[in-house]
Design goal:
With 101 residues, this protein is mainly alpha-helical. It is built from 3 helices and no strands. Helix 2 runs antiparallel to helix 3. The mean pLDDT is 90.
């Protein structure tokens, strides 16, 4: 089960970054991205929830050393995921608003 949460988090985090990049490429081809920002944030949120489930699994197993080993890295990577997702979606939103003017 641990592998599921970790791999799911990595895959969804990558999807959260690829969706806005896909939207930018579609915008450059003349298509207007519609709900890509929502899908990107949903993938980001689910990736973070998977990490919370992973920490919960450590708590259930009473593996305090496992929590202490991973919580620092998980916190840093979560912040990086959120910041980059926000930046990419801000670019998509900016391009979308520029196209409507």
């Amino acid at each position: 089960m641990s592998m599921f949460f970790n791999m799911g988090s990595i895959i969804l985090g990558t999807v959260a970054w690829l969706i806005p990049l896909f939207a930018i490429s579609q915008f450059q081809k003349g298509y207007e991205p519609k709900n890509y920002i929502i899908y990107s944030f949903m993938a980001c949120c689910i990736a973070l929830v998977f990490q919370l489930f992973e920490i919960r699994r450590y708590v259930i197993m009473q593996d305090i050393s496992g929590i202490m080993d991973t919580v620092g890295a998980v916190s840093v990577v979560s912040i990086i995921l959120i910041v980059i997702t926000l930046l990419l979606n801000s670019i998509v939103n900016y391009l979308r608003n520029e196209g409507n003017e």
